[in-house]
Specification:
By secondary structure, the chain is mainly α. The protein has one domain. Helices cover 72% and strands 4% of the residues. The chain has a 4-stranded mixed beta sheet. A hairpin with a 6-residue loop joins strand 3 and strand 4. The longest helix has 44 residues. The protein is globular, with a radius of gyration of 23 Å. The N and C termini lie far apart (64 Å).
């Protein structure tokens, strides 16, 4: 059984590396060609950033594979011997904390390099060491408090309940739904400041759009995203009475009101089509499959790893293999998500004006320095949003024609050919 799992994980790793290599080769060739949706210099820089990020991902994937092999051949037995765990709830939680802490330490250099080297070099982040440490300490505190509680409940179920994987799924799925409810009002404010959008034309227009689709929210808020990042974004968060509209302050600085309303119209499309509940349903299916498969692992596997079948080890193996199970579902979930994005674009163009949504999409690509092209395999596996060129085409705009029109214009005015939004 161990040999089969190692073979499957090896194939999974090789596929991920192969897809990344194909993406690097594709972008390396495309970035030196004719630019689309941005200036030639920005197009090249966006391509270089995408390549370097992909290379970092390959190294991270290889390290993950090495850690997987270490865990299933030596690591679990070593950690069990080190902690001397018994099959109790407390020992199970300690074992899981040890497992997660080691993985966190191994992955930390990649996150640090991404944040303070790669993103700094390309002007994506404003993160300071002080702010980073504060974020990490908050995250670690939440992990030990909330994660410890979840680990304890799961461990108790594994130890005391027959067919524990069923009730474990019910518990974890319920917690995932609860997190969606409390995230906007309890969790997100721990890391960012949220200020109510001031009264005025923009607020009135947003509220009018929300009324049209029957969305009752906790309010419209501006998030101080610029203290960490220069990227533009907006989202609807929460479930039930906790739903709220969140606008990044960076978005307000770069988009006109009409463009912003078109973007929010897109997000309202997701609400109107029930995409949030569809995503929760897909997440539930993934979790159920993972619990079913990984909750029925044979005793032979644990014997081959040199450990006893205990709650902490069972849950750690589940977390270790969850990425493999998730990867199998990824193309299906990505396909459904891309379809939902097309439908939301259609809805947003009807709510806020097609030309405004097109204008906003082009600005998002330009400001976020997102390379607008990708290898088909990358799109197939990972793209939850269709490539922006395909989105523009679906909205009735030929990207090459758009590109020819914006080339001669200065940055401040490149979108006036669509509509005089200002």
């Amino acid at each position: 059984m161990l040999e089969l799992i190692m073979i499957l994980y090896t194939v999974y790793t090789l596929i991920r590396v192969y897809v990344s290599v194909m993406q690097i080769g594709y972008i390396s060739e495309e970035k030196n060609g004719e630019a689309v949706l941005m200036s030639q210099d920005k197009f090249r820089v966006a391509g270089e950033y995408a390549i370097r990020k992909e290379r970092l991902g390959i190294v991270s994937t290889i390290v993950d594979y090495i850690m997987f092999v270490w865990w299933v051949t030596v690591g679990f037995a070593w950690l069990t011997a080190l902690l001397g765990t018994t099959n109790s709830v407390v020992d199970s939680v300690i074992f899981l904390f040890g497992f997660m802490s080691i993985n966190y330490i191994i992955g930390l250099p990649f996150e640090l390099y991404q944040t303070f080297e790669l993103d700094k070099e390309y002007g994506f982040t404003k993160m300071t060491p002080k702010l980073y440490i504060q974020d990490q300490l908050k995250s670690i505190a939440m992990f030990f408090i909330l994660g410890g509680a979840v680990f304890a409940l799961l461990s108790w179920i594994v130890i005391n309940v027959s067919n524990w994987w069923i009730w474990g799924f019910v518990l974890l799925f319920s917690i995932a739904v609860l997190v969606n409810v409390i995230y906007p009002t309890i969790i997100a404010p721990i890391f960012n400041k949220f200020s109510p959008l001031e009264e005025g034309e923009l607020r009135s227009s947003i509220e009018s759009m929300m009324e049209k689709v029957g969305l009752k929210s906790d309010g419209i808020f501006i998030m101080d995203a610029s203290k960490r990042d220069n990227r533009l974004n907006a989202y609807f968060g929460g479930l039930g009475k906790s739903k709220r509209v969140v606008l990044f302050d960076t978005l307000l600085d770069k988009l006109t009101n009409r463009e912003l309303l078109a973007v929010l119209g897109h997000e309202l499309g997701h609400f109107s089509h029930g995409d949030i509940w569809k995503n929760i349903g897909m997440m539930g299916l993934l979790l159920f499959s993972a619990f079913f498969l990984l909750g029925n692992l044979p005793n032979e596997l644990f014997f081959n790893m040199g450990v006893e079948k205990r709650a902490g080890v069972e849950l750690a193996i589940m977390m270790l293999l969850l990425s493999l199970i998730g990867f199998i579902f990824t193309p299906i979930m990505s396909f459904i998500s891309r379809h939902n994005e097309y439908e939301a674009d259609k809805f947003g163009s009807e709510m806020g004006g097609k030309e405004n949504l097109v204008s906003a999409l082009i600005k998002l690509v330009d400001e976020n320095k997102s390379f607008p092209k990708a290898h088909p395999l990358v799109i197939f596996f990972y793209y939850t949003h269709p490539p922006v060129l395909e989105r523009l085409k679906e909205l009735g705009y030929d990207a090459s024609a758009v590109n020819e029109m914006i080339k001669p214009l200065e940055r401040e005015g490149i979108f006036r050919f669509l509509d005089d939004n200002k």
